[in-house]
Amino acid sequence: MRDEPSRDTEGRTGEGPWERVPAMAPAGRAAAGPGRVRPVADPTAPPGGRTVAPSPLDPGAALDPHPVHRRLREEFPLTYDPLLRAWVLSRYADVATALTDPRFTHGHRPGDPACARAHTDVDLGELRSVAERTAFVLARRIAGRERADLVADFCHWLPAGTVAAAVGVPYLDMMRLVRGRAATALAGECGGQIAVREKALASFLGNVLADPDQVAALRDAPAGLVARAWAESLRRDPPVQIAVRRTREDVPVSGGVLPGGSSVALLIGAAGRDPERFREPDRFDPLRDDPHQLTYGPGFCPAVILAGLEAEYAVRALFQAMPRLRLADGFRPAQTGLITRAPRTLVVLPNG
Question: Which phi and psi (to 5°) does residue 233 adopt?
């Protein structure tokens, strides 16, 4: 199955490697698919009342998908969604299986086995160098401001800047050459996943800055602790909420059997907050003893390496250039989005 970029809730195409989530059905017409969602009796409903599974695309889910995810995990672990035109999996065990089991087709998720065989000449030292250099350049550019938006002024440029530096594009040409599909042409399919890395970095910095204790813990933390915080952010707030796969054969999962040849929507965001897998799953805890994340696979991939290095040097550069960096008074990071999800803004006071 050919890999295509994902789309966010406003129809923009991102550079993510996940297969495209099917379009929503036109208003007033049922989507094609293997069958309608079977109504399930709700014991709390009025006499004669019937309920159906909620959809991850329900109104309001872009602002807060977690109530929908929770209900799907608890009551509808396997359901067909006419809007997604796919079966939906939301429990950690099922989603993790679908991302790794050969009975499902694999997209080009960073770290998938096909990616691991594709890169043999990557200079890790050079990747580290360009990530560090770019992060410190960007941090110094905003250090003297009274206020700044880290999404627009930092997260938006760090992934693009590392790609630019890695392939030898001058910094001043970065805006023109390494946004959108140009990045893929310059750095290959993996290195060009800029939009996903932007969103992941914005969520990571939002999680860190929202808690003064995390700021203090990570200000001068060793790389290992920053890496744990980065992985924890990917678990709690993955940049891509829904990935699509297809079954090669019938597959038993929680709640029933997925028919062979079916499209399957994997709720990465729901799986990462499954209380059957994670204690206090809604809490951001870099020191948790049950860590894991489903955004990136285990194989070697430049995008995975770059994303982790960008997170590490973002923390180091920002706190070194702005020791008193904090969120603006009254501002709290707000995640938004259905397919891809991250804060749109991170308003900070560079000098406290």
Answer: -65, -40
